[in-house]
Amino acid sequence: MSFIKKFPEMNNNVYERPDHSAWLQTIREQDELCDVTIKVRNKKIRAHKLVLAATINYFHRMFLGNFEERMKDVISIDNFDEEIMEAIVTFSYTGKIAFTKENAADLLKAADFFELTDVKDNCMKFLKYNLETKNVFAILHLAKLVPGCTSLLERSKTFIRRNFREVSLTDGYRNIDIELLESILSRKVPPIYNSEIIFEVIMRWISTDVDSKMTHLSELLRHVSLFDLSSQFLISFLFEDEFRDSVGPKHREIVAEVLSVFNELKLNNDSKNTTTDETNSLDLYNMPGTSLVKFSSIIDTDIEFRNNATHCIKTRFHSITAMNEYMSKSFEELRFEDYNAGRNEG
């Protein structure tokens, strides 16, 4: 029996020329034996039909099928810009392609168009790894447009759930549709934030276009455990100047809708004889608002020193919170209680 000696610099005695693929690219760059020109807007990219057909399914069908481009020397492709097309052609020669945050979205669309499954899969991996609050909605929209990107779509949704408050502060959040928002809120795994944050991001979405989104408020609020919200939180949020300014004339209608949904949930809760944590639940039914005593201004006496003499002066307070019955509450708390009781006029 004879033994074949293996050379250490060879892999199973197979010699592999270093940088072999780079030689093909060099021939293309020097425009040697090129037989096709790909015209992309204002740029002309020279290449070899054989190489393109051997490495890219799109060109394989074009040059070997019954298409008129088979006999043409110039092929026009206007779907992508010059840089993306150059990257695709270079990949057919070198087998290498570089993903960046700037080109990944366009490369994903190009890989799908040219049927480069491996490039498409790796591009999706790159996008998943580089999801950020500022780009997640753009990537999610991209995943919905490009076929076969289900995993990227789900990863984007998961990222949004896990960073719900942060992404709700971005411009992209303003434009998401109700179906997407519903799907994010209804998914219980992974768990998203507490009731206060969910309530906050729902109201922020409503405030971006109150006229068209107001109709969805009731359904969206059902994703919030309203019994977990304290009256202090609701009053602070609903009556803060920033929120009131963002919703404008619709403010009263929004507050009334929030209270209506809560009241309905409480009635359903009572009918099922379930209990809630009294220390944390929103006790709207023990909030008298300004109904205890009719408002009347308060007159008080103050002392003033003037011209080396002491003078007693009368001061009249035209504020309901100066009355003994209401001095423990703020204007916002009293207004909230009145809204709940239906006293929202004047």
UniProtKB/TrEMBL annotation:
Positions of the BTB domain: 34-101
Pfam families: BACK (PF07707), BTB (PF00651), Nup98_GLEBS (PF21240)
Keyword set includes Signal: no
Membrane topology qualifier: Peripheral membrane protein
GO CC terms in record: nuclear membrane; nuclear pore
Compartments it resides in: Nucleus membrane; Nucleus, Nuclear pore complex
InterPro entries documented for this protein: BACK, BTB/POZ_dom, SKP1/BTB/POZ_sf
Superkingdom of origin organism: Eukaryota
Keyword annotations of the record: Actin-binding, Kelch repeat, mRNA transport, Nuclear pore complex, Nucleus, Protein transport, Repeat, Translocation, Transport
Biological process, per Gene Ontology: mRNA transport; protein import into nucleus
Annotated family: Belongs to the nucleoporin GLFG family.
Protein name: Nuclear pore complex protein Nup98-Nup96
